[in-house]
Amino acid sequence: MELTEQRNLVHKTRDARRSISFPKLSPAERDSLIKKYHPDHRAHAYRPIIFGPNAGQLTVTEVATLLEGESPVPADLDLTPDYSVDVLVVGGGGAGCASALHAHAQGANVLLATKLRLGDSNSVMAQGGMQIAVASDDSPVQHFLDTLKGGHMKNDHQLLKVMVEEGPSIAKWLLELGVLFDRDADGNLHVKKGGGSSKARLLTCSDYTGLEIMRVLKDEVLNQKIPLLEFVAAVELLSDAKGACTGAVLKDLDNNRFIVVAAKTVIMATGGIGRLHIQGFPTSNHFGATGDALVLAYRLGVPLVQIDTFQYHPSGGVYPEQLVGALVTEGIRSEGGHLVNAKGERFVNELDTRDVVSSSIIRECEEGRGIRTPSGRVGVWLDTPLLDVEHGPGTLDKHFPAMVRQYERYQVDIRKDPVLIYPTLHYQNGGVKIDVNGETPVANLFVAGEASGGLHGRNRLMGNSLLDLMVFGKRTGILAAERAKSLPNSSLTLDHLKRFRAEAKRHQVSAGVISPMVLPAYTNK
Amino acid sequence: MPDTLDKKHTLNQEEILQPKMVTVEIEGKPFQVPAGITLIKALWYAGQDVIRGVGCLGGFCGACATYYRTKDDPKVKTCLACSMAVEDGMSFSFMPAFPARKATYNLLELKDPKQDLFALYPEAPLCRNCNACTEACPQNIDVREGVWKAVFGDFKTVSEMFMDCVMCGLCAPVCIADIAPNLVALYASRAQGVHFTEKPEGLSKRIEEISDGRFQQEWDRILKLSDEELQNTTASTT
Ligand SMILES: Cc1cc2nc3c(=O)[nH]c(=O)nc-3n(C[C@H](O)[C@H](O)[C@H](O)COP(=O)(O)OP(=O)(O)OC[C@H]3O[C@@H](n4cnc5c(N)ncnc54)[C@H](O)[C@@H]3O)c2cc1C
Ligand code: SF4
Ligand code: SF4
Ligand code: FES
Predict the structure, then answer these.
(1) Would you call A333 a catalytic residue per the annotation?
(2) A89 and A449 in contact (C-beta within 8 Å)?
(3) Which ligand is nearest to the CA of B149?
(4) Are A378 and A318 in contact (CB under 8 A)?
(5) Is CATH 3.50.50.60 correct for A83-309+429-500?
(6) What is the ipTM metric for this complex?
(7) Angle, CA of B37, B42 and B44, to the nearest 5°
(8) Which residue among A14, A275, A333, A475 is the active-site one?
(9) Which of A507, A525, B33, B109 has CA 20 to 30 A from A484's CA?
(10) CATH code for the part of the protein at B107-195
């Protein structure tokens, strides 16, 4: 069948589908669906980590190889610092900007280093919104419960409680900086319903929530004149004789020189792993999402948590080819968009948790009910025109201008035609182990944002990441700045690296891989 | 995406089975690249390392601001290289970083943000209506109109018009009055949020409720529950 014919089936079945409602799956049904179809359960993609703090635990090969990789920093590097600061923030996404602003507000001398330009990150792409329990029929406790259920009860209770309780004060902080959240007629914050949540709880800025927040935070970092190093990546941490973190070795990507930073405290806010293309999946992530904090913290002896679970967002583009992997906002499903297979049928409650929806899409495709694209990919339909039918013409234009534009660029009109989607590698559910202040078990090393782990359990709920960034950006920024005040300058050594290299040798690991990856190698050589 | 590639059921379309190649000119040099890939992928395909010029790869960060021209058309247009497909005969180059001046300000301390605009960006009212900024905007924002709205103090409309602005900066180098419209708009939008938007009452109330310990009882109840009980409970909202 031609793609157009397939598409017509979606139009033909639209009315009939509107009267059908799909129940969410029971916990037992969810578990069996996920075990059978979710990429987290493809045993062949996993292997035990050979040595280090998580030795023996399973993770995907792509991550294990980097964790065991070789540092690019030579053992005899001259460690005379080029910069000496109170707080070094690594990463210029949402978590990094928030950390830097809060640390700076405490009076600390902050340096912010980031791999690309300030703000070039995953944060800038967040379209769906930010979960905060502000509605009168909602509560932080319910936010906690929803998140826990979404995370398969594996979330760290303490981290999660802190996040949901501090949410409202974060909304206030962002409003005070000028972030323009959508409002109701009475001036209250407008809330939308997101997948896996029992209440409408998503704060949005049209479908540009991350962009709006990042425009404001970036502008504020510049207004506050926080010293900034762009196109500079952290490639190793530094430690003192007691094993505490005392700074980092950075690499200037413009001239390939090392930069040594002595810092009383270090906050890693380097984001996720999408560009590792785990199991060959395309990704929604930005160019620099290569899991660098995992590698750096691991070499310093910090354990990782739940590093075997990743989020494959249900709706990644599969057609046109230029949009492969690109995120199609969940907002479409939140507002009632159906998922439709090749037979013109719905097959899942579209607002079930992401792992459930992704698993069911994979099931449809593997069992032959997917739709093939001209380049041989497979996906299912997301019925976008339904939104205009359901809520009146102009709904897509008004609520999803970014997505309308995203497809218009390739002559696809989502107001008229449905789009094809398939799961895309989206988020690292686990990450570096932290406590409620974002501090790792290694003294004076903090991690904030997607790079950290524990809070989201085995599946992050939509909209919880933006809140995580802001809450733990704030907590790490404040504590790291305070801590720095009472800390003397300490020594800068690569002792931990010496230990790590010795262990690699003992385990006869010589993968020949240099890590962190810093940037994916897409260039044809 | 190896597990979704299915050769047997692939639509039988010639151009897919043998990807059609097109010729494009990258910074003045011709290269053969597969038709339909994005401009950034074309650079990688042509063996070029790109660091400056790639960011989100999703059309949101503005790192990939690019000038391009299609075959035989004299008109040089702009685009985001991560969100534009190559076609035969196209020429393109990244926009180099442009040293536009950003004013620095403390928004909370501003007394009269609509007037302060003229101190911070004295060039803003000197717009000469050439419309080059609007033509340069890959997000189809009516940039010129936005500059005027800012000058006339209609910050609310500016904030709505520029919600789509990815800060690519393509509107700045073309401006004959040395205005960086995106920066003017960002100032106006933030000022709108800080000074001219009402405080949401529900939010203040919720913050109070939390600090007054209104949810403490519920926390005490649920934090004692087993996973199984948690699975089946909901929070009371009264
Ligand atoms: C397309 C998309 C849509 C999303 N939508 C939503 C949503 O609607 N709601 C929600 O809550 N969440 C959403 N998420 C998830 C959320 O946006 C991310 O989890 C979050 O932005 C991560 O923020 P971060 O600050 O931890 O990392 P990032 O924002 O990715 O920032 C990390 C920064 O660190 C830099 N960096 C990386 N390594 C190094 C290094 N070695 N040295 C120096 N710098 C480095 C990176 O270049 C980047 O600037 C979405 C994610 C994507 C990709
Ligand atoms: S207004 Fe200027 S900076 Fe914003 S998207 Fe348009 S051209 Fe780019
Ligand atoms: S380019 Fe400058 S002068 Fe021309 S319309 Fe835009 S703001 Fe005015
Ligand atoms: S790389 Fe971010 S907009 Fe193109």
Answers:
(1) yes
(2) no
(3) 3
(4) yes
(5) yes
(6) 0.93
(7) 125
(8) A333
(9) B109
(10) 1.10.1060.10
Q: Is the CB of B179 under 6 A from ligand 3?
A: yes
- Under an 8 A CB cutoff, do A142 and B203 touch? no
Ligand 3 mean position, distance from CA B76 (Å):
17
Q: Could you tell me how many CB contacts below 8 A there are between chain A and chain B?
A: 237
Tell me the per-residue pLDDT of A449-487, one tens digit each, with 9 for 90 and over. Answer: 999 999 999 999 989 999 999 999 999 999 999 999 999
Contacts of A315 in chain B (CB under 8 A): none
Lookup: tokens for A111: 């340096």
Q: Taking each helix axis as running N to C, give the angle between helix B181-195 and helix B143-151, from 0 to 180 degrees, rounded to the nearest 10.
A: 50
Residues of A with CB below 8 A from B194's CB?
A: 176-178
Query: Chain A within 8 Å of B122 (Cβ-Cβ)?
Result: no
Which DSSP state fits A190? P
Chain segment B149-190, per-residue pLDDT in tens: 999 999 999 999 999 999 999 999 999 999 999 999 999 999
Rounded to an integer, what distance in angstroms lies between the CA atom of residue B219 and that of residue B103? 47
Specify the fold of A3-37+312-425: Flavocytochrome C3; Chain A, domain 1 (3.90.700)
C-alpha distances in Å from residue A331, one per residue of A23, A41, A341, A384, B168: 19, 27, 20, 11, 25
Contacts of B16 in chain A (CB under 8 A): 374-376
Q: How far is the CA of B173 from the centre of ligand 3 (A)?
A: 10
Under CATH, to which class is B2-94 assigned? alpha beta
Write a three-state SS string for A143-176.
HHHHHHHHCCCCCCHHHHHHHHHHHHHHHHHHHH
- Per residue in A52-88, pLDDT tens? 999 999 999 999 999 999 999 999 999 999 999 999 9
Q: B27 — contact with chain A (CB < 8 Å)?
A: no
pLDDT in tens, A265-284: 999 999 999 999 999 999 99
